[in-house]
C-alpha cells in the first residue's frame, strides 16, 4: 500500500507542478516604469531607466516595494511544502547555543540563546556563582529587530559601553552602563557608524562616526570618518574630534593598549591598506605620531610590552608576519621579525602572556603557540579539520578559549591550558544532527586560466552521485575575506534531505594571502567569476549535480558574484539566489560608504578602460532577452551597507527581459539590514523561502528520504 501512496503522491505533485509552471508563464510582475536618465562616461552614454528606484524615501518606491513583495509572497505561498520546511527549520533551530566566554573585571561573560530567541542574551557569573542575565536585547524592541551590535568594557570591568542597531542599520546608538548596578550612566550617544569603543581608564572612550549626510540616512554618501573622545558626564555635543577633521579618511578606528599607555589610530580610504598612528597618553602634548603614513599595507597593533610594540602586517609579507619595534622610533625600517612570514596566511591572537598564531592552510585552521620572543611553544592539537577561532584573553588569565567547527560539526567550545597545552571540551551544543552520517571533503579543480582552486563539498554519505542531486554552490571572492568551514543550522536541513552544499574558495578572498586577493580585484575581477563558473562545471562533470539541479548563492560581494555569473552563463544554473548584492557597478561608489570598495572594484570614473571593464560585467547593465535561472533576489529595506536600490534595479531589468517560464522575483525584508543582528525568526523565514523556492524550481519535493 505504501508504494501505491507514494506513486499517487508523486503523480499529484507532478500535476500540481505542471499547473504551477503554467501559471508562471502567465505571471504578471508589477509595472516598473522606465524614465529617461542618461549618464556620460568618457565618450559613452549609459541609460539608467530605473534610477528613480534609488530614492528610498519616495512614495513611488515604497509602493513598488509593496507590489513586488505581494507578487513574491503570493508565489511562495503556493509551494505546498514551504510551511513544513519552515517547521523543520524551527525544530532543529530550537536548542541552547553558547559562545565562548570572556573575562571582564570579576565576571565571566558569555552569550546564550535558549533556542528560538530572536537575539542572543549576554549572561555573566562571578567565580562559581550562579549565572545571571546582564543584557537581554530581546527586550530592546517588541519585534526583536533591535540588536546588541557590540560591547566594550573599561579596563577594570566596572563600566561598559554597548551599541544598539535598529532594524539592522549601520547607524548605531551607544549606551553606557555601570556593570555592577546595571544602571545607565549619562546620555546615550547617537549617529555612530562603523565604530569600535576604546576606553581610556574610566574617564571616557574613543569612537568613530560620520557627519549626518544630506538626503537619505540609508543611502547618502558617508565619506569622512572622524575619531572622537567622549568624556563621561558630558554631552555628546562636547565630544572632541581627535583625528579626521583636517585630513579626510573614509575609515578611522582606534584601540587603547591594555596598559592604557598608548592610543593607536588606524586610518584608511579603502578596505585594503591603512595608515597607523600612535599617541602617548601619558604625555600632556598628546601628539599624534605616524608609525606608517602610507596605505601600502594592512598593519595593526597586536600588543605591547612597555614601549615595545608588536605589529601584524603584510608589508613585504603577503601572507602576514608579526614584527616588533620600539615606540620611540616605530617606522618600518626598524621592524624586526618575531614570527616571520610563512607559506600559510597568519593571524594573531593574544592571551595568557602568549601569541596564538592562527595559520590557514587551504582554508583550514592550524594554531601554534609562541612566546613573546617568537619561540615556538607548541602546535595546538585541534579536534579535526575545520575552523578554529581563538578568543583573545588578558595577559593575567590562565585559560584561553577557542571554538571549533566545520560544515558537519556544530560549533563547540574548548578551553586550553597554555602552560601544558591540554584541551578540554567546554560546551558542545545538542543539535538534532548526526555528523557521522555526512561527508565533507575538499577537492581542487582547475579554473579557466589554469589556477588551482579549492572547494569543500558536503553531503549525506548514502547519496548517489548520479547527476540528479540538488546542489547549492556558494561563494564570495572578495575583500580579502576567507570562507572557512562552519556549521549552519539552516544548511543542516538542506543536507539531511539529500541536498549538496559546495563552497568554492575563489580568488579575491584571503585564503592564500594578498596575492590571492589581488588576483580577483579591479581589472582581474573576471577571475573570480571564472573560478565560480569552473566550480559549477566541475560539479556537473563529476555528476555531483547537473544544470537542472544546481543553484548558486552568495551575499553582498557574493551577490555580485551570483549576478555576474547568471548573466554570463544563464545556461549553467537552474536557480540563482543573489542576496544584498552589489549589482550596479557603475554607481556603487555613490552610496553610503561604497567609495571605500574601490580597491577591489575600481570606479567608472577612474579611466576609460576601468569603465568599460566594469560595464562588461555589471549585472544591472548585462541583462539581455534570454531565459535566466529561476531567481530569488533577496534584500532588505534598512540595508545601508549595500543599498537595496542595487537589487531593485536588477530585478526590474530581469522582469523586463526574462524569456521562458522561470520566475524572477525579489524578496524585500522589512525592518532588516545587511544581515548583522537579524532576528532568529527572520533568519528562519528567509531560509524556508530560499530552500522551498530552490526545490520547487528544480521540481523536487519535501520531505523525502532521498532525491
Q: What is the 3D shape?
A: globular
Please indicate the percent range of residues in DSSP E strands (runs of 2 or more): 25-35%
The strand line-up of the biggest sheet is 32-33-35-34-36-37-38-39
Sheet with most strands: 8 strands, mixed
As for the CATH topology of the domain at 20-91 and 433-697, it is: Rossmann fold
Distance between the termini: 21 Å
**What is the gyration radius calculated from CA atoms?**
26 Å
Low-confidence stretches: 1-25
CATH class of the domain at 20-91 and 433-697: Alpha Beta
Instruction: Give the tally of β-strands.
Output: 39
CATH superfamily heading of the domain at 20-91 and 433-697: Alpha/Beta hydrolase fold, catalytic domain
Helix count, DSSP H or I runs of 4 or more residues: 11
- The secondary structure category is alpha+beta
The averaged pLDDT comes out at 93
Structure description:
The protein has eleven helices and 39 strands. The chain starts with a helix and ends in a 10-residue tail after the last helix. The protein has a domain at 20-91 and 433-697: 3-Layer(aba) Sandwich (Rossmann fold), CATH 3.40.50. Mean pLDDT is 93; it is low at 1-25. The longest helix is centred in the first third of the chain and has 24 residues, at 2-25. With 707 residues, the protein is α+β, with helices and mostly antiparallel strands. The protein has an eight-stranded mixed β-sheet, sandwiched between helices.
Tell me briefly what this model is.
The chain has 707 residues and is an alpha+beta fold. The chain contains eleven helices and 39 strands.
